[in-house]
TrEMBL record:
Catalytic reaction(s) noted: K(+)(in) + H(+)(out) = K(+)(out) + H(+)(in); Na(+)(in) + H(+)(out) = Na(+)(out) + H(+)(in)
Source domain of life: Eukaryota
Designated name of the protein: Cation/H+ exchanger transmembrane domain-containing protein
Predominant location category: membrane
A GO cellular component annotation in the UniProt record: plasma membrane
A biological-process GO annotation: regulation of intracellular pH
Amino acid sequence: MVASQLAAVLSKLQTLYSDHASVVSMNLFVALLCASIVIGHLLEENRWMNESITALAIGLCTGVVILLTSGGKSSRLLVFSEDLFFIYLLPPIIFNAGFSVKKKQFFRNFITIMLFGAVGTLISWSIISFGVIKFFKEMDIGSLEIGDFLAIGAIFAATDSVCTLQVLNQDETPLLYSLVFGEGVVNDATSVVLFNAIQSFDLTNTNHRIALEFIGSFLYLFLASTLLGVAVGLVSAYIIKTLYFGRHSTDREFALMMLMAYLSYIMAELFYLSGILTVFFCGIVMSHYTWHNVTESSRITSKPGTSIIVSSVLLALVMAGRAAFVFPLSFLSNLAHKSANEKISFRQQIIIWWAGLMRGAVSMALAYNQFTRAGHTQLRWNAIMITSTITVVLFSSVVFGLMTKPLIRFLLPHSKVTSAPSGSSSPKSITVPFLGSTQDSFEDSPKGVQQPSSIRALLTTPTHTVHYYWRKFDNAFMRPVFGGRGFVPFVPGSPAERSEHKLPQLQ
């Protein structure tokens, strides 16, 4: 009897200790985030430092302090969880990216972005995969299977161009920013889709049939994920436009937008699709339709030795794999553009190549997913791969990140070019940004500019012509149903109604 009571007390104490440890971990995590933001802001004008490197330095220093002060007993106070990252941290980041992207510039360069983000990622994945098969078998680091080699290729094909985007300005260098930003998002989605496709196939016996099924599965995941994001975004626009929550409660309106955006990500995971691609295109659709259906108040409410050798091989393959597609695909893209302003110069190609050399959280999460068992690395080669991944992420983020600003200043010394507006947009006082920078819209071509009306004109200026006919279709069929700018619900005296009447005078 006494023994059972003592066991119950010890169990309660252990539970209380575990809960307290979780609270301590959460406090430490939030404090580190605050420190990263504050210190990153103070070092924003520094030639070498940026927020990514600052966050890495703070995390490393904190880990060293914890290990030294606790004698190694609190080494697992903060543990990276790929589930936590993919389910809670990644969706709002990607949604904000899709919501705040300059849509006109993004879709004007959509073919080039897809070349770099999708085709380029596949080329990089192939080179890295074949490279690790050749070198790792000679190094004899462990009994890795063909699926592990292909997964390593997908892990290190995932870029992290945050450091470069912090230096580039989408108003000063719109083409370069659009290409680097768009490629980064499509690349992450492609890498995750590729990784999931690899895990879903039995690759012990490969043949042509398996290869065709693999390609079909990849295309299905890519297209289905995109369509799901577009569908959820249109449904949210239709519901908010039809029911007009804002007349009663802006909180419900804002909450519904956030929940439906998150719902698109969760639904993608439920159906084994790419949540990154889904929530990204959901954000684009919401910014084009849903955002203009909400009230103005809702808008105001709302980016070891063996391990060292392995890491060096992986870094070399990453650099070679990226160079193998950036320069050839840039050449092909330039052939399709006659205007010098739309062509990618060699210096810009170097920056695009450099922007994708850094590896970050997506690579870490995929590596933990592939090479950990129940949260631990019990096998030697699994531990080597986790350590090598961390080494590559830290080295590429710190070393390549430190050199990003000097490189861009050297290659683009006069990057502050005053570019003409890509289309008229609403005043900032009316379209307050939802989660980041101001939105731009797909606008009709300026008056007086004759639109191409022949097949020959369509072939010579495809992006502009497709954009023109898309705007006509959008205004005639899509916006009257799903809302959007100029089609907001009419309520006399409402902020949205006043904004609608002010727009013609200000444009």
